[in-house]
């Protein structure tokens, strides 16, 4: 059984978008095999499990059997205006559904993003964020915003400004390393930011130059320290400014198509431990 203590700096999280589209069982196998303490799930994982006849208690037991915390719940789209969502159910989860899924599995936070349009409704979005934060807060949840470079909230600054405009006190940011670097950011750019601004960190790696198709590019990443991005320097900077939370990996890759879930998890875990050792040593 996992402990009741929150995950900390010595823990690692496997974000299940690494195996996006795979069954929940395979995602859990990967997380356990890689030695991860937590797994970030999608609300669609929970709804699919329920559709398959599993109760929330069954899913909690599946997590407990593998000593895994549910470390977060992805991902709410369509909340900030200006998006045309694709038909995939994973991208069409409502506010109440994602809060319910997070609460059912004991996740500490829900994750929000804007990826299917290049502009938010600048007038309505702060109010909508405030409403979501109120509803999540009533359930004991934090709200995280993940900047996506081609979306309407492309950078850390844009996400932070939206939080300030909303007046919400339970909202922070997710840093996804791929999105961070593709938005033109570098580790030194966060040197003056407060560590409490960040609620989740997701690592991967990639070529220094982005591909023509951003969706294809973001769906085929490299393991941390197996590409050309300054991910080790980002990890080091986060620790230097005082971020004391866990690090995680979100690394979807075409390479995983030829591997079983346990092997994927092991490779992800090994890469993350190497990254953490490198950050500690610097």
Q: How would you describe what is shown here?
A:
This protein has an eight-stranded parallel beta barrel with strand order 1-2-3-4-5-6-7-8, surrounded by six helices. It is an alpha/beta fold and about 280 residues long. The longest helix is centred in the C-terminal third of the chain and has 21 residues. The model has no long low-confidence stretch (mean pLDDT about 95). It has ten helices and eight strands. Helix 1 packs across helix 10. The protein has one domain: Divalent-metal-dependent TIM barrel enzymes (TIM Barrel, Alpha-Beta Barrel).
- Supply Rg: 17 Å
Order of helices and strands: EHEHHEHEHEHEHEHHEH
Q: Level of helix content?
A: 25-40%
Query: Strand order of the main beta sheet, please?
Result: 1-2-3-4-5-6-7-8
Q: Mean pLDDT, nearest integer?
A: 96
| Number of beta-strand segments | 8
What is the domain total for the residues?
A: 1
Please give the CATH class: Alpha Beta
The fold-level CATH name is: TIM Barrel
CATH superfamily: Divalent-metal-dependent TIM barrel enzymes
pLDDT < 50 stretches: none
Distance between the termini: 34 Å
What is the correct CATH architecture?
Alpha-Beta Barrel
Protein topology:
Elements lengths: L11 E4 L8 H10 L4 E5 H9 L4 H10 L3 E8 L18 H11 L3 E4 L11 H15 L3 E4 L10 H11 L4 E6 H6 L15 E6 L10 H5 L12 H10 L6 E3 L11 H21 L1
Parallel strand pairs: 1-2, 1-8, 2-3, 3-4, 4-5, 5-6, 6-7, 7-8
